[in-house]
Automatic annotation (TrEMBL), chains A, B:
Gene Ontology terms: biological process: methanogenesis; methylation
Similarity section: Belongs to the trimethylamine methyltransferase family.
Keywords: Methyltransferase, Transferase
Entry GO MF terms: methyltransferase activity
Pfam families associated with the record: MTTB
Protein name in UniProt: Methyltransferase
Ranges where the record places region Disordered: 1-39
Organism of derivation: Kiloniella litopenaei
Keyword Cell division: no
Length: 531, 531
C-alpha cells in the first residue's frame, strides 16, 4: 500500500479532532457557509500570475505576417453596408466591387494595425451599481455567462427551447454568483418572445435582475440602437456618451466576410462610445484552415478589421479582439469543443492580443457533451484553463455552455461558476515571503509533529485554500450516508436553492418605470416578427 | 441569437455533406476506430511546448533557501536505520541522537545539493519489450496508472476491497491504452493475498500482463529485494546491474521524518542500480505549513534528502524528486485533491526540479469525488494540467484516481486515459510554418467559401485534431437516439470491452516458468502475514 493512503486515513482523523477544538473551528463557524471565500471576491479578477506564453516571438511574427498577407492579398468581403466600405476606402483600403451589395477590400500590411492605435488597451464598462463596474484589458479578467443557446436543459425537464422565464432565471443565477462579474447577453434565446422584440426583454432583465454590466442586442441595427437607448434611460445620456455602459458581441462570417448587419451594429455601438467584441467563429476545416495556426491567423485578420471599423466610427471607442476556436470530429463531422488544439490556439491569441495592445475575448467553459458529466467538465477545463492562462480579458462563455453551445444547462451553470471561483484562487498565484514559507509552523513542532494547532496554521486557516460550494470532499462514508449523489444531482439542488433565495438588487422606481415605458412603446410600434 | 449558433447548425450540415464524399471520408474509414491517433502514439511523450513558469528566479531562490534552512536548522529525523545515519554522518551530516532508534541530522546549506550532483538528469527505465522502454527526465514525460488504493469501484458493483483479479484487470487496462507509458506499481491493493506475499503477485502481473516498465515493492526491504530479484530473472543479472529496469516509490513521513523501512528500501534499490521516487505526501496544515509556499519548501527539503541517500548508496543511481501536494476542506477537515493551490505548487515544483537537474514526479489525475462525475474531472484536470504544464517527468497517478486515492475506479480509469491521449496532442504544441498557416486553403476558395474540400484540408484532415475514444461529440439527436448515455455509462461499457478484447503480450515460456518458480518458492518459505 502506498504510504500516502495511510496518511489520508490518519490525517482525516487528526484533522477531524483538530476542528473540534481551538480558534480555527470557531472562526470557521462564523463563515457564511460553503464557497464564500470572502477574501477572493472582487468586481473583476486582477490576474496575478504570469501568462502561459506558448510561442516565441519569431513564430508570433509568422502568424502576424500571415494575417497581414490575408488582408493584403485575399482581402475581406463586406456586404450590404456601403457606409462601412466608404469608411475603409477613405482610410486607404483598396475596394473592388463584387456586386451591387458586396465589396472586397484589401489592406496594405500595417494599415489595420495603424488604425487600431487609437483603441484603448484597457477600459471600464460601467455597471448601474458602481461597485460592480468592471475593467477589460491588461491584467483584468471578467467572467460572463455563456451566450446564444436556443435550447435550455435541466435534469428534471431535459432539453427544450428557452423562454423569457429561463432567460430571467439565468440572469438571476449569474447575479447570485460572486464568481461571475458580468451579466452577459443572450444567455439563452427567449424563444417565446417575437424575434424583433426579445432584445427589449433581455436588456430589461439584465437591468432589472442584475446590477452588473451586460451586453446589448446585435441582431439588427435598430435593436442595437434600442439597447443603447435603454442605457441612456438608466445612466443618463451624457454619462453614456462619455462612458462605456454596454457592449455588443459581433460575429464575422468566416472565412473573411463581414456582413452588413454586423458592421452597421458595430458602427452604432462605436458611434455611441460603447464597446464591441469582434468574433470570428472558427470551425477548422470548415470556415478556416484545418490546421490551428491558420485558424489563428485568419481569426486575427478578421477580428482586427472589425476592431478597426470602430476606430473609423469613433476613435477611442472600446473594441475587443476575439476568437472562438473549435475543432471537428473526424468521425461524425460535428464541431467539437474543449479539445487540445483550440486550447493551444487560445494561448497564442492571448500573446497576439497583448502585442496588439487590445483586450481579448477567447475560449470559456466549452463542451460538446449533452449532459453536465465528466466529459462536459474535461472539455470545459481544457478550454477554460487556456482562457485564464492565456490572459484572456473577457470570457463570455464562462458558465452553462453545453451541447456545443446549443443548450444552456442549469446544472452546468452552477458547476461552472464553482470552477470560476476556484480560478479566482488560481489567478491569485503564490506570494513567497517569510510568512507564507511558514518555517515558524515547522519550528513550533519539529520533525514528526503535526501542524493543526500552530499559530501559523491558525492565522492562515481560513484563507489558505479555496472552499468549494458544490464539490463533495467528504469521506466516502459520509457522502454515502447522505445519499451518494453525483455532481449533477447536487448541482440540480443547488440552482433551485439559489433561485429560491434570489433577491433582486434595488432599482430606482422612476428608472424602472421609464424603462418599462420605453419597452412598451417600442413593442407597440412594431408588429411581431419571428425572424 | 449569437450568430455562432447559426454557424454550429449550418456547419454541422455542411460538414456532414462533406464527409459523404471525397478522399477525406475514405481515409477516415480506413482508420481503426475512434481514438487511435496513430501519429501521436509513442513509448513516452517528448514535451514540445514550453513549461509554465509561475515564479521568477528571486522567488524560487527564496523557496530554495527556506528548504536549506529547514535542513540546516530543524533537520530531518531518521528512524530505525543506523546504516543510513552512518552514511549521512560520513558525508558531513550533523547527527544528534534522539533515542536508540531515532536520530536528527542537520545538513549545512548546499551539502545535499552537492550530493545530488552525481544523480542523472535523465535516464532510461527499460521495459521487457525494448520498444516500450521509457525515458524519465528532461523533456520526457511518462504517464502511469494511479497507485495505492485499498478499494476499487465500478458502476455495477460499487466500492469494495481490491483483489488480485482487480489488480490484473487494471494492469490489462493500462497495457491496452496507448496513452499510458508505464504499468505503475500497486495500482490497487490485492487484499485477498497476504500482505507479505502480494508483492510477488503484483510484480508477476506487471511482467505477465504488460510489456511496459513498472514499479516494485517498497513495504519492506526484503520485498524490495524480491522485486529486484524477479527483474534479474526477467532481464538477466548483468543487465539489471547496469540498467534501470524497476523503481520503488518511497514516502517520507512528513513533516521531516524518513523511517527505516523507507530508507532501507531506498538503499536496496539504489545499491542495485535501480530507480527510486522520493515522495513527501503533503497535506497542508496537517503535516506541512498550511500555506502552499511552505508546503513546497518542506517537500523540496524532504525529497532532496531521500534522493541524496541514493547517491550515498551508489553514485549515479537514478533518483526522482517528488511532491504530492494537497489541501484541506475548511468545513470537514478532509484532505482535498485537484484544488487550485496545489496546482500552483506543482508548477513551482517543476521549476525547482529543473534548477536541481533532477527528474520530477508530481500531481496527476487527482479527485476527491466518489464517482467519475463532473466533480471528478474538474479536479483531475486542475491537477493533471499542472503536471503537464509544469514539465513533470513521471506522473504516477495518471488514471483511475478517485475518492481521495482510497478507490481505483474502472470507469475513471478509461476517462483518464482518454484525457491522457488529449494531452499527447496538447504537449505536441503548434508548429508554425507556411503549410500550417494554410493560406493556400483560404486562397483556394476565397472569402465566404468553405474549406471542406481544399487540398490543404484533405492533406491534414486525419491528423489536425485529437480524436477521442470516449467522448460523445455527436449532435444531441444522434446521441439521444443511441440512448442518451452519460460519460460514466459509456466508460463502463468501454472498460468491459477493453478487458474482453485484451490479449497478453508474448512472454518467453522459460522466463515465465522461472518467475513462477521463484514466486512459489518464496511463498513457500514464508507463513502468511497480514501486516
Amino acid at each position: 500500500m502506498e504510504q500516502s493512503v495511510d496518511h489520508v486515513d490518519s490525517n482525516e482523523h487528526r484533522v477531524g479532532r483538530a476542528r473540534n477544538r481551538g480558534r480555527a473551528a470557531r472562526q470557521a463557524s462564523r463563515m457564511d457557509g460553503a464557497g464564500q471565500n470572502a477574501h477572493l471576491q472582487a468586481p473583476f479578477i486582477s490576474r496575478n500570475i504570469p501568462t502561459y506564453d506558448l510561442l516565441d516571438e519569431e513564430n508570433l511574427i509568422k502568424i502576424e505576417k500571415a494575417a497581414d498577407t490575408i488582408l493584403a492579398e485575399i482581402g475581406i468581403e463586406f456586404r450590404e453596408d456601403p457606409e462601412t466600405v466608404e469608411l475603409f476606402r477613405k482610410a486607404g483600403g483598396q475596394v473592388t466591387d463584387i456586386s451591387a451589395e458586396a465589396w472586397n477590400i484589401k489592406f496594405e500590411p500595417g494599415m489595420i494595425r495603424e488604425l487600431l492605435k487609437t483603441a484603448p488597451e484597457r477600459f471600464t464598462q460601467h455597471a448601474r451599481n458602481p461597485a460592480r463596474s468592471v475593467e477589460i484589458g491588461g491584467d483584468a479578467m471578467v467572467f460572463a455567462p455563456a451566450y446564444g443557446s436556443p435550447f435550455v436543459m435541466d435534469m428534471d425537464k431535459g432539453r427544450r427551447y428557452g423562454t423569457l422565464d429561463d432567460f430571467e432565471n439565468f440572469v438571476k443565477l449569474a447575479q447570485s454568483s460572486p464568481w461571475l462579474h458580468h451579466s452577459g447577453g443572450t444567455i439563452c434565446e427567449p424563444t417565446d418572445i417575437p424575434v424583433n422584440k426579445r432584445h427589449l426583454d433581455m436588456v430589461y432583465a439584465h437591468i432589472r435582475y442584475s446590477d452588473r454590466p451586460f451586453l446589448g442586442s446585435i441582431t439588427a441595427p435598430e435593436r442595437a440602437v434600442d439597447s443603447i437607448e435603454m442605457c441612456r434611460i438608466l445612466f443618463g445620456s451624457e454619462f453614456v456618451d462619455q462612458n462605456c455602459v454596454i457592449m455588443g458581441n459581433f460575429n464575422s462570417t468566416s472565412p473573411l466576410v463581414w456582413d452588413g448587419i454586423s458592421t452597421q451594429g458595430i458602427r452604432a455601438y462605436a458611434a455611441a462610445g460603447q464597446g464591441s467584441i469582434h468574433l470570428p467563429f472558427l470551425l477548422g476545416g470548415a470556415v478556416c484552415p484545418v490546421t490551428m495556426p491558420g485558424a489563428v491567423a485568419q481569426g486575427l485578420a478578421e477580428s482586427m478589421v472589425g476592431c478597426a471599423l470602430t476606430q473609423l466610427a469613433r476613435p477611442g471607442a472600446p473594441a475587443i479582439l476575439a476568437s472562438f476556436l473549435s475543432s471537428m470530429s473526424l468521425r461524425s463531422g460535428s464541431p467539437t469543443f474543449g479539445t487540445p488544439e483550440p486550447a493551444l490556439g487560445s494561448l497564442v491569441m492571448g500573446q497576439l492580443a497583448r502585442r496588439l495592445k487590445l483586450p481579448l475575448r477567447c475560449a470559456g467553459n466549452f463542451a460538446t457533451s449533452k449532459l453536465p458529466d465528466g466529459q462536459a467538465m474535461v472539455q470545459a477545463m481544457m478550454s477554460m484553463m487556456s482562457a485564464v492562462q492565456g490572459g484572456v480579458n473577457y470570457v463570455l462563455h464562462s458558465a452553462g455552455f453545453l451541447d456545443g453551445l446549443l443548450s444552456m444547462s442549469y446544472e452546468k451553470f452552477v458547476m461552472d461558476t464553482d470552477l470560476c471561483g476556484a480560478l479566482h484562487a488560481y489567478l491569485k498565484g503564490l506570494e513567497i515571503n517569510d510568512d507564507t514559507l511558514g518555517l515558524s509552523s515547522l519550528r513550533e513542532g519539529g520533525p514528526g509533529e503535526h501542524m493543526f494547532g500552530t499559530a501559523h496554521t491558525l492565522s492562515h486557516y481560513e484563507t489558505a485554500y479555496w472552499d468549494t460550494e458544490l464539490n463533495d470532499d467528504q469521506p466516502f462514508e459520509s457522502w454515502s450516508e447522505q445519499g451518494g449523489d453525483d455532481a449533477m444531482i447536487r448541482a440540480n439542488r443547488r440552482w433551485k436553492k439559489i433561485l429560491a433565495d434570489y433577491q433582486a438588487p434595488h432599482l430606482a422606481e422612476d428608472r424602472d418605470e421609464a424603462l418599462l415605458d420605453f419597452m412598451n412603446r417600442r413593442k407597440t410600434e412594431m408588429k411581431d416578427a419571428w425572424y
